[in-house]
Design brief:
The protein is α+β, with helices and mostly antiparallel strands. It has 6 helices and 7 strands.
């Protein structure tokens, strides 16, 4: 394997982040999301959203050699992302972070990029006072569930259903500490 690394995203990385977002979703979520979601993907709107994320959240890129192969986005968790099923907030809501996106292009998968990305994000989150994080993943996404389980995270029993282009998409919330147990 060529040299693998993780670095903070810069504004000029927005186009490659958008491309990875679209290509990875199209490959990994084919069958989970209806084709209309991919057909209606708005690249300029996605680029604006990613530019905002690069400016306001922790966004890190995984590289292998000269290639950018994935990214993670993490930051403070809004209340609605951590609240209990009854709408109350957990005691540690103020120190809970959100991993809002972790995508590694499938052709670069199983090479440690996801683990390096999450470990880097976890370090940045701990530095800002976070003690744990949550992530929402499609319930049918076995690969993501397996990845988060390997780093020591677990489903917390909270589910939500999103409208994915007119089709319900059920997501589970996983949570875990930020001192990760990375295994290779």
């Amino acid at each position: 394997m060529a040299d693998a690394a993780v670095r903070p995203a810069q504004p000029d990385d927005v186009a490659v982040i958008t491309r990875i977002h679209f290509d990875t979703w199209r490959t990994a979520y084919d069958g989970l999301l209806p084709p209309e979601v991919f057909e209606r993907f708005d690249f300029p709107e996605a680029e604006r959203a990613w530019a905002d994320a690069v400016e306001h959240a922790h966004v890190f890129l995984a590289t292998e050699g000269e290639w950018t192969v994935g990214f993670v986005v993490a930051g403070s968790a809004p209340d609605q992302e951590v609240q209990n099923a009854d709408g109350t907030l957990p005691a540690d809501a103020e120190t809970t972070a959100l991993v809002s996106s972790l995508l590694v292009e499938p052709r670069w998968g199983r090479r440690g990029h996801g683990g390096r990305l999450v470990a880097t994000a976890a370090h940045a989150l701990r530095d800002q006072g976070a003690t744990r994080a949550v992530v929402w993943i499609p319930e049918a996404d076995v690969a993501s569930k397996s990845f988060y389980t390997r780093i020591g995270w677990a489903p917390d029993g909270t589910v939500r259903t999103l409208d994915a282009g007119g089709r319900p998409l059920r997501e589970i919330r996983m949570t875990g500490g930020l001192a990760l147990l990375l295994q290779h």
